[in-house]
Amino acid sequence: MDLCHDDGMGGSGTVTSTPLDSSSLLWRWAGDMRIAFTGGTAGLLQVMDPAIGYALIEHSNFFADPVDRVFRSLPPILGTVYDDPATGTGTMVRDLHRDIKGVQPDGVRYHALNPTTFWWAHATFQMMVEQLVDRYSHYRLTDAEREQLYAEGVQWYRRYGMTESVVPPDRAAFGREWDRYCDEVLAPNPASDHLMKVIESWTIPDMSASPHLPVPPALAPGARKWLPKAPVRAALAPGLRLSIYGGLPPQVRERFGIRWTRVDEAAYAGLQRVIPLTWPLQPVPWRWHLASHAGWKRERGRLPRPW
Ligand code: HEM
User: Fold this and answer.
1) Whose CA is nearest to atom 11 of ligand 1?
2) Has residue 20 been placed in a domain?
């Protein structure tokens, strides 16, 4: 069976083609380092899909290091947006998944290239970008821009060379499918249980050893010096929990028994006020993920000031 093709789940595949280049909204936002505040939610929502959860348990070092996988994956994922499409970054990413398959304990078979499963992983990345704009920037998308950002996200997905049969045709249909997935498909599994324990721990994991730590080169020595220290990791833990759990749809928090109080809600609102105010104080290159630098320089000759 060609797993890149239809599994019969009825999408329309009729999203119109829209340019995905330096004039696009997706370029404006996908490489903005504020994805650090929404990427954790995307990662957790992926792991909450049992197919992805069991795939990670069986095909990666997820339990030993649940974070490095995210850091390692981000450059090719963002590269699919910013690299010259002729380099084939997207299809290279897809082909990494050809052998990621198996059988869940309940007997259900999974394959990373199952169209619905692969689409869900991508859907969380699209939401990661949209949520960064809505929650961590002062920019307000118009309805037309939200639709455009969605269509550009579909163009991003096209670069993986997967079937579009399951891809919702517009932003409204995406929202409905997103809700259905959250209500019916996501389910607690050993990988999501483990990740939630990591998120709820009193310190964040020591990420300093990761060769893929997404910090600007100038900050890397400081990060490697301070991140192993328990008090630093303890100080960062509440913000990590807040940003990841705050980004979850409320019904997911409820279904997974995640405690979320009014105090959490207020603190999360505070985070969303502070980040847009303080973020512009950083130098421009620090505000762009390294995976976007070459693309901007190729197309514009320099890194633009993020919005
Ligand atoms: C848009 C969809 C997806 C994208 C963009 C993506 C991206 C990636 C990338 C870039 C890597 C390589 C990381 C490295 O360099 O080691 C990777 C590895 C992996 N992916 Fe995906 N992935 C997607 C969907 C999925 C799905 C649906 C599953 C499971 C059902 C999955 C399971 C895995 C596993 C198990 C690995 C190996 C991780 C490891 O070596 O630790 N991925 N993915």
Assistant:
1) 73
2) no
Pocket test for ligand 1, best of 100, 103, 159, 162 (most atoms within 8 A of CB): 100
- Residue 204 Rama label (left phi>0; alpha psi -120 to 50; beta): beta
Q: Is there an atom of ligand 1 within 6 Å of 22 CB?
A: no
The answer to whether residue 231 is domain-embedded is: yes
Sign, CA torsion 175/176/177/179: positive
Average pLDDT for runs of 10 along the chain of length 307: 39 64 96 96 97 96 81 93 96 98 96 98 98 97 97 97 96 98 97 96 85 82 88 91 98 97 97 95 92 96 88
Full domain range(s) for residue 192: 25-296
Q: Under a CB-based contact definition with an 8 Å cutoff, are residues 128 and 43 in contact? A: no
7 falls within a domain: no
| Number of structural domains the chain divides into | 1
Ligand 1 centroid to Cα of residue 97, in Å, is: 6
250 vs 268: CA distance, rounded Å: 13
Residue 273 Cα to ligand 1 middle (Å): 33
Residue 176 lies in a domain: yes
Is residue 93 in contact with ligand 1, taking CB distance under 6 Å? yes
